[in-house]
TrEMBL record:
<protein>
    <submittedName>
        <fullName>XRE family transcriptional regulator</fullName>
    </submittedName>
</protein>
<dbReference type="Pfam" id="PF19054">
    <property type="entry name" value="DUF5753"/>
</dbReference>
<dbReference type="InterPro" id="IPR010982">
    <property type="entry name" value="Lambda_DNA-bd_dom_sf"/>
</dbReference>
<dbReference type="InterPro" id="IPR001387">
    <property type="entry name" value="Cro/C1-type_HTH"/>
</dbReference>
<dbReference type="GO" id="GO:0003677">
    <property type="term" value="F:DNA binding"/>
</dbReference>
<feature type="domain" description="HTH cro/C1-type">
    <location>
        <begin position="15"/>
        <end position="70"/>
    </location>
</feature>
<dbReference type="Pfam" id="PF13560">
    <property type="entry name" value="HTH_31"/>
</dbReference>
<dbReference type="InterPro" id="IPR043917">
    <property type="entry name" value="DUF5753"/>
</dbReference>
Amino acid sequence: MSGSTLAGRALGRLLAEYRQRANLSRSAAARIAATSIQTMGRLEDGLKAKVSHLWINALADAYRCSDEERQLLLNLAQEMNSAQKNWWRAYADEMNPGLHHYLALEGAARKLTTWRVSMIPGLLQTPEYRRAIAWYEYPEMPPAQVEKRIEMHIRRQKRLDDAGFVMDVIVSELVLRDQIGGPAVMAEQLQRLVDLSVLDRISIRAVTYDAPGHLGSMVGSFALLEFPKLPATGMVEPPVVFVEGYAGDLYLEREGEVRRYRNAFAEIARVALDPDTTRQLMLSIAKEFRA
């Protein structure tokens, strides 16, 4: 799955680069491949699941690619086509718009760096916490549909079993104290964070109410995803910043944009508690919830 996501992004990026170098429009490329401009757009955006080698060769001819460039495109197409079916397709009817794209990136990432001003990161949420969020978002949703979403949520968390996957998490104190689902749910959720925080691959830190001023108040919640090398080519896809919004999500990939969020995280980390002190804070708040 990760190979499919990353190979698709790399293939699309290179095809767009070679097309622009050849001074051809996207519509011209679509005509060469005998497909629609919408399909060509999905291919260049890394969103197409499969691609024909006939397409690749036709486009490589039109773009006047070198033998090495053509072979690179073919290798990426082969890696993309041979990847396993994405697990979340079984839950397509239960997913919010755009979630499948984020899950593809999350599943492909080697490192997830995130700052949260509200709600626990999805990968770290307990089922009861996730269930409470579902009821807040969709109070009229049938219980069976809610449970299907919880099932998807549990499946998603298998990502944490990957020994090569690293998380660096900073949350505001509000995230730890906000009573999503009530005191009992929050006590269980905080214990879950404590248990995860002792793993070498997962760092959890908190910014307390009395922390000095920092950029986190201005930038809002975001996630920075970084990716491993592609097996077939050794290429490394550029990192992506995901900014989640109530009315829609934003993906930032330009080097300058990513740098700004990376720097913002470093500034937030400067005022955050260390992991051990954060762990003690979470245990203390959990005790308050149980009282």
